[in-house]
Amino acid sequence: MKNDNSEFIIGRHPAIMALKSDQEINKVFIQSGLKSDAISQIIKLAKEKRLVVSNVPKTKLDQMSDHQNHQGVALAVAAYHYATIDDLFDNAAKHGEDPFFLILDELEDPHNLGSIIRTADAAGVHGIIIPRRRAVGLTSVVAKTSTGAIEHVPVARVTNLVQTAKELKDRGVWLFGTDMKGTDYRRWNAKGAVALVIGNEGKGISSLLKKNCDEMLTIPMVGHVQSLNASVAASLLIYQGFNSRHPL
Protein backbone atom coordinates (compact mmCIF):
# COMPACT_ATOMS: atom_id res chain seq x y z
CA MET A 1 0.00 0.00 0.00
CA LYS A 2 1.17 3.55 -0.66
CA ASN A 3 0.16 7.11 -0.03
CA ASP A 4 -1.32 8.73 -3.11
CA ASN A 5 0.81 11.86 -2.77
CA SER A 6 4.48 12.28 -3.54
CA GLU A 7 6.48 13.19 -0.45
CA PHE A 8 9.65 14.95 0.62
CA ILE A 9 11.97 13.98 3.43
CA ILE A 10 13.36 17.17 4.96
CA GLY A 11 16.14 17.84 7.46
CA ARG A 12 19.75 16.69 7.53
CA HIS A 13 19.52 13.74 9.95
CA PRO A 14 16.31 12.29 8.42
CA ALA A 15 17.91 12.62 4.96
CA ILE A 16 21.04 10.75 6.07
CA MET A 17 18.94 7.98 7.65
CA ALA A 18 16.84 7.67 4.49
CA LEU A 19 19.92 7.54 2.23
CA LYS A 20 21.36 4.76 4.38
CA SER A 21 18.11 2.77 4.22
CA ASP A 22 16.26 1.00 1.42
CA GLN A 23 13.85 3.94 1.01
CA GLU A 24 13.20 4.63 -2.67
CA ILE A 25 14.59 8.11 -3.38
CA ASN A 26 14.05 9.97 -6.64
CA LYS A 27 16.13 13.13 -6.28
CA VAL A 28 18.21 15.10 -3.74
CA PHE A 29 17.87 18.87 -3.32
CA ILE A 30 20.54 20.90 -1.49
CA GLN A 31 20.34 24.63 -0.75
CA SER A 32 22.86 26.52 -2.88
CA GLY A 33 25.98 27.66 -1.04
CA LEU A 34 25.50 25.48 2.05
CA LYS A 35 28.53 23.65 3.40
CA SER A 36 28.82 21.41 6.47
CA ASP A 37 29.93 17.90 7.39
CA ALA A 38 26.31 16.72 7.26
CA ILE A 39 25.77 18.24 3.80
CA SER A 40 28.99 16.62 2.56
CA GLN A 41 27.83 13.26 3.92
CA ILE A 42 24.44 13.60 2.21
CA ILE A 43 26.09 14.40 -1.13
CA LYS A 44 28.50 11.45 -0.71
CA LEU A 45 25.68 9.02 0.12
CA ALA A 46 23.60 10.33 -2.80
CA LYS A 47 26.48 9.85 -5.24
CA GLU A 48 27.04 6.31 -3.96
CA LYS A 49 23.39 5.61 -4.87
CA ARG A 50 23.84 7.40 -8.20
CA LEU A 51 21.12 9.89 -7.36
CA VAL A 52 20.74 13.29 -9.02
CA VAL A 53 21.79 16.11 -6.65
CA SER A 54 20.34 19.53 -7.47
CA ASN A 55 21.50 22.80 -5.92
CA VAL A 56 18.46 25.02 -5.48
CA PRO A 57 17.62 28.35 -3.81
CA LYS A 58 16.22 28.36 -0.29
CA THR A 59 12.85 29.58 -1.61
CA LYS A 60 12.37 26.33 -3.58
CA LEU A 61 13.11 24.23 -0.48
CA ASP A 62 10.71 26.40 1.54
CA GLN A 63 8.01 25.61 -1.01
CA MET A 64 8.79 21.87 -1.09
CA SER A 65 8.72 21.61 2.69
CA ASP A 66 5.63 23.76 3.16
CA HIS A 67 7.86 26.22 5.06
CA GLN A 68 9.00 23.62 7.61
CA ASN A 69 12.56 23.73 8.99
CA HIS A 70 14.28 21.84 6.15
CA GLN A 71 17.88 22.72 7.17
CA GLY A 72 18.77 23.16 3.50
CA VAL A 73 17.98 19.57 2.48
CA ALA A 74 15.05 17.79 0.83
CA LEU A 75 14.77 14.33 -0.70
CA ALA A 76 12.02 13.61 -3.20
CA VAL A 77 10.87 10.11 -2.32
CA ALA A 78 8.36 7.58 -3.53
CA ALA A 79 5.23 7.60 -1.40
CA TYR A 80 5.75 5.71 1.85
CA HIS A 81 5.14 2.00 1.85
CA TYR A 82 2.82 0.66 4.50
CA ALA A 83 3.34 -2.74 6.08
CA THR A 84 0.75 -5.50 6.52
CA ILE A 85 -0.31 -7.01 9.84
CA ASP A 86 1.64 -10.13 8.86
CA ASP A 87 4.74 -7.94 8.37
CA LEU A 88 4.42 -6.76 11.97
CA PHE A 89 4.25 -10.33 13.28
CA ASP A 90 7.20 -11.27 11.05
CA ASN A 91 9.22 -8.36 12.50
CA ALA A 92 8.64 -9.66 16.04
CA ALA A 93 9.59 -13.19 14.97
CA LYS A 94 12.75 -11.87 13.29
CA HIS A 95 13.82 -10.45 16.67
CA GLY A 96 12.89 -13.68 18.46
CA GLU A 97 10.41 -11.80 20.68
CA ASP A 98 6.71 -11.84 21.51
CA PRO A 99 4.91 -9.11 19.55
CA PHE A 100 4.74 -5.61 21.05
CA PHE A 101 2.48 -3.44 18.88
CA LEU A 102 0.90 0.01 19.09
CA ILE A 103 -2.61 0.80 17.84
CA LEU A 104 -3.18 4.52 17.31
CA ASP A 105 -6.88 5.40 17.20
CA GLU A 106 -7.37 8.37 14.83
CA LEU A 107 -4.30 10.36 15.85
CA GLU A 108 -4.46 13.68 13.97
CA ASP A 109 -1.22 15.54 14.74
CA PRO A 110 1.75 14.51 12.55
CA HIS A 111 4.19 15.67 15.26
CA ASN A 112 2.57 13.29 17.74
CA LEU A 113 2.80 10.40 15.29
CA GLY A 114 6.44 11.18 14.49
CA SER A 115 7.36 11.38 18.18
CA ILE A 116 5.57 8.10 18.92
CA ILE A 117 7.41 6.36 16.06
CA ARG A 118 10.70 7.67 17.48
CA THR A 119 9.92 6.31 20.97
CA ALA A 120 8.63 3.04 19.50
CA ASP A 121 11.93 2.50 17.70
CA ALA A 122 13.93 3.25 20.85
CA ALA A 123 11.86 0.82 22.95
CA GLY A 124 11.80 -2.08 20.50
CA VAL A 125 8.16 -1.87 19.41
CA HIS A 126 7.65 -4.26 16.49
CA GLY A 127 5.04 -2.27 14.60
CA ILE A 128 2.35 0.40 14.64
CA ILE A 129 -1.22 0.14 13.37
CA ILE A 130 -3.15 3.23 12.21
CA PRO A 131 -6.57 3.63 10.55
CA ARG A 132 -6.89 4.58 6.89
CA ARG A 133 -9.49 7.30 7.55
CA ARG A 134 -9.72 10.29 9.90
CA ALA A 135 -6.08 10.00 10.96
CA VAL A 136 -2.68 11.31 9.92
CA GLY A 137 -0.62 9.02 7.69
CA LEU A 138 3.10 8.84 6.95
CA THR A 139 3.97 12.34 5.76
CA SER A 140 7.17 14.36 5.47
CA VAL A 141 6.40 16.09 8.79
CA VAL A 142 5.96 12.70 10.49
CA ALA A 143 9.24 11.52 8.95
CA LYS A 144 11.17 14.59 10.12
CA THR A 145 9.72 14.45 13.64
CA SER A 146 10.66 10.75 13.88
CA THR A 147 14.32 11.72 13.10
CA GLY A 148 14.76 8.67 10.87
CA ALA A 149 12.89 6.11 13.01
CA ILE A 150 10.21 5.91 10.30
CA GLU A 151 12.70 3.80 8.32
CA HIS A 152 12.86 1.16 11.08
CA VAL A 153 9.36 0.78 12.55
CA PRO A 154 6.81 -0.83 10.20
CA VAL A 155 3.45 0.95 10.08
CA ALA A 156 0.31 -0.85 8.92
CA ARG A 157 -2.70 1.18 7.76
CA VAL A 158 -5.99 -0.69 8.06
CA THR A 159 -9.59 -0.05 7.02
CA ASN A 160 -11.18 -1.01 10.35
CA LEU A 161 -9.34 -0.86 13.69
CA VAL A 162 -12.03 -2.85 15.53
CA GLN A 163 -11.79 -5.73 13.06
CA THR A 164 -7.99 -5.58 13.27
CA ALA A 165 -8.18 -5.64 17.09
CA LYS A 166 -10.32 -8.80 16.89
CA GLU A 167 -7.82 -10.35 14.47
CA LEU A 168 -4.95 -9.60 16.86
CA LYS A 169 -6.86 -11.18 19.75
CA ASP A 170 -7.55 -14.28 17.62
CA ARG A 171 -3.78 -14.46 17.06
CA GLY A 172 -3.04 -14.42 20.79
CA VAL A 173 -2.36 -10.71 21.37
CA TRP A 174 -3.65 -9.03 24.54
CA LEU A 175 -4.96 -5.48 24.08
CA PHE A 176 -4.34 -2.74 26.64
CA GLY A 177 -6.13 0.58 26.32
CA THR A 178 -5.66 3.94 28.02
CA ASP A 179 -8.36 5.64 30.06
CA MET A 180 -8.84 7.98 33.02
CA LYS A 181 -10.17 4.97 34.94
CA GLY A 182 -8.07 1.84 34.90
CA THR A 183 -5.11 0.01 36.38
CA ASP A 184 -2.12 2.16 37.36
CA TYR A 185 0.19 1.85 34.35
CA ARG A 186 3.13 1.16 36.67
CA ARG A 187 1.53 -2.23 37.41
CA TRP A 188 1.31 -3.17 33.73
CA ASN A 189 3.11 -6.39 32.88
CA ALA A 190 3.62 -6.32 29.12
CA LYS A 191 5.24 -9.74 28.83
CA GLY A 192 3.81 -11.95 26.12
CA ALA A 193 2.11 -10.76 22.95
CA VAL A 194 0.62 -7.31 23.60
CA ALA A 195 -0.78 -4.29 21.80
CA LEU A 196 -1.07 -0.87 23.43
CA VAL A 197 -3.98 1.27 22.22
CA ILE A 198 -3.51 5.07 22.25
CA GLY A 199 -6.59 7.22 21.67
CA ASN A 200 -7.25 10.38 19.68
CA GLU A 201 -5.80 13.61 21.11
CA GLY A 202 -9.23 14.93 22.12
CA LYS A 203 -11.75 12.07 22.11
CA GLY A 204 -9.57 9.24 23.40
CA ILE A 205 -10.28 5.65 22.34
CA SER A 206 -13.55 4.98 20.49
CA SER A 207 -16.13 3.04 22.49
CA LEU A 208 -16.15 0.05 20.11
CA LEU A 209 -12.38 -0.30 20.22
CA LYS A 210 -12.40 0.13 24.01
CA LYS A 211 -14.79 -2.84 24.30
CA ASN A 212 -12.15 -5.04 22.65
CA CYS A 213 -9.42 -4.09 25.14
CA ASP A 214 -8.58 -6.72 27.76
CA GLU A 215 -7.56 -4.10 30.33
CA MET A 216 -7.45 -0.32 30.66
CA LEU A 217 -4.39 1.51 31.97
CA THR A 218 -4.26 4.95 33.55
CA ILE A 219 -1.44 7.39 34.29
CA PRO A 220 -1.87 8.91 37.77
CA MET A 221 -1.59 12.70 37.92
CA VAL A 222 -1.38 15.04 40.89
CA GLY A 223 -0.97 18.38 39.08
CA HIS A 224 -3.53 20.94 38.02
CA VAL A 225 -3.67 19.85 34.37
CA GLN A 226 -5.29 16.41 34.26
CA SER A 227 -4.16 15.35 30.82
CA LEU A 228 -0.96 14.69 28.91
CA ASN A 229 0.01 15.22 25.29
CA ALA A 230 -0.72 12.02 23.33
CA SER A 231 2.94 11.38 22.45
CA VAL A 232 4.09 11.99 26.05
CA ALA A 233 1.46 9.62 27.45
CA ALA A 234 2.35 7.05 24.80
CA SER A 235 6.05 7.33 25.68
CA LEU A 236 5.42 6.67 29.38
CA LEU A 237 3.32 3.61 28.58
CA ILE A 238 5.68 2.29 25.92
CA TYR A 239 8.59 2.45 28.36
CA GLN A 240 6.60 0.73 31.09
CA GLY A 241 6.09 -2.01 28.51
CA PHE A 242 9.83 -2.03 27.85
CA ASN A 243 10.64 -2.14 31.58
CA SER A 244 8.41 -5.14 32.22
CA ARG A 245 9.67 -7.00 29.14
CA HIS A 246 13.33 -6.22 29.89
CA PRO A 247 13.65 -6.04 33.71
CA LEU A 248 16.94 -4.97 35.31
From TrEMBL:
SUPFAM superfamilies in UniProt: alpha/beta knot, L30e-like
Gene3D superfamilies: 3.30.1330.30, 3.40.1280.10
CDD domains recorded: SpoU-like_RlmB
Stored InterPro entries: Alpha/beta_knot_MTases, Ribosomal_eL30-like_sf, rRNA_MeTrfase_TrmH, SpoU_MeTrfase, SpoU_subst-bd, tRNA_m1G_MTases_N
Residues of the RNA 2-O ribose methyltransferase substrate binding domain: 8-83
Record key words, sorted: Methyltransferase, Transferase
Pfam families named in the record: SpoU_methylase, SpoU_sub_bind
Family label: Belongs to the class IV-like SAM-binding methyltransferase superfamily. RNA methyltransferase TrmH family.
UniProt xrefs under NCBIfam families: rRNA_methyl_3
Descriptive protein name: 23S rRNA (Guanosine(2251)-2'-O)-methyltransferase RlmB
Annotated organism of origin: Limosilactobacillus avistercoris
Lineage of source species: Bacteria, Bacillati, Bacillota, Bacilli, Lactobacillales
